[in-house]
Amino acid sequence: ESVWRLAPSAVRVGRVRIVPDDASVHAALQPGDVRLHESAAFGTGVHPTTALCLACLDELLASEPVAAMLDVGTGTGVLGLAGLVLGIASVTAIDVDAVAARAAKENARVNGVTHRLHVVCCDPEAVQGRWPLVM
Questions:
Q1: Which of 21, 76, 104, 105 could be stapled to 43 by a disulfide with Cβ–Cβ 3.0 to 4.6 Å?
Q2: What pLDDT is stored for residue 29 in this prediction?
């Protein structure tokens, strides 16, 4: 089982700054930071695919407010958490991997947004509803 490592310090993509959930960085936290626990789940902001998705999300939300988002294959929950930081009111995050769903739930707890980031371990076909934004 591989562990996706966080960058040793904060990573900024647009208006989003991803910081490791480590006691040494808590004093330097800024409003709007996304804190992540290191885990076996994918999505730390360092990988180019995640960074590109974060950049697109930031650009989209800078020009057009979105009320809700569906994050498919959430991994650590980084895209959903970034969406919340950027102004989305509610995010539903799904993943088929139980390890990823647990990591996303823990990151929602660490960021104080368990009431806004709803994490479900399921196949995409099991989700019903409509979202103005799907990542």
A1: 76
A2: 77
Distance CA 79, CA 104 (A): 10
- Cβ atoms of 4 and 44 within 8 Å: the answer is yes
The DSSP secondary-structure symbol of 67 reads S
Instruction: Kindly report, residue by residue over 124-133, the tens digit of the pLDDT.
Output: 999 999 999 9
Q: Which two tokens stand for residue 99?
A: 């390890």
CB 128 within 8 A of CB 66: no
CA distance 75 to 82: 13
**How far apart, in whole angstroms, are the C-alpha atoms of residue 120 and residue 80?**
13
Work out the angle between the directed axes of helices 98-110 and 78-85 (0-180°, nearest 10): 30
What average pLDDT does this structure show over 117-124? 96
